[in-house]
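Example A, followed by Example B.
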Amino acid sequence: MSITLSTSGTAGAFVSGTGAYVTSKAWAYYHSTGTAGIDNEFGFSGVTDHGTGDISLTFSAAQPNIYYSVTTAAGDHVRLCQDGDATLTDRCRLRSFQGGSSGTLVDNGRNFATIHGD
């Protein structure tokens, strides 16, 4: 296995080479309250607010295909999930729902997303 580690980026290290598929392609800590924004990231370049509880994170570099995995987490009893109908190579659309059974879309101050794929 050959792996190259570069720390030239400001957000962290980038790993490439054989075996690099086991690393995260991108990750973000972002908020959707007020003016939505990314608080810390690697591999994302921006956020688009589509309305309450509905945002897109734009990748710094497009994914090679739409078959990537999105792992999400959120604070404040909010459920966060990928919008499967909007899977694209240049961005990832995510929705946040109030915890419990209401299913109401809500903005949240602490959201996390990690991307894995080819």
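Example B, a separate protein, is given below in the same form.
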Amino acid sequence: MFCTQCGTQLGEAEPNFCPSCGAQLRSPGSGPSFSTNARRLTRSRRDRKIAGVCGGIAEYLDVDPTLIRLVAVLALFCGAGFLAYIVAWIVLPEEELQPMPSPATI
């Protein structure tokens, strides 16, 4: 990692400030440098048939919900599919509501 101000090579520790010029490299207390836009596995509010479990898994994996539902039906006949669905229904949080934009008045 290099300082963007003076070009000094920094160590592996990723400091908050450059030891040579004192430039701020990242905000203090920001923790490790990883993306904070991580997706969460939630039950879907928009694409649900029973509880939104299959729709939420499909949104998380970015696949067609029909494929996830087919796998769930196959798992239902193979044994613990029903129990797994009930556990996911209980454990997975429901996705947060997105605020609706107010209608424009003319």
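On Example B: The first helix runs from residue 53 to 61.
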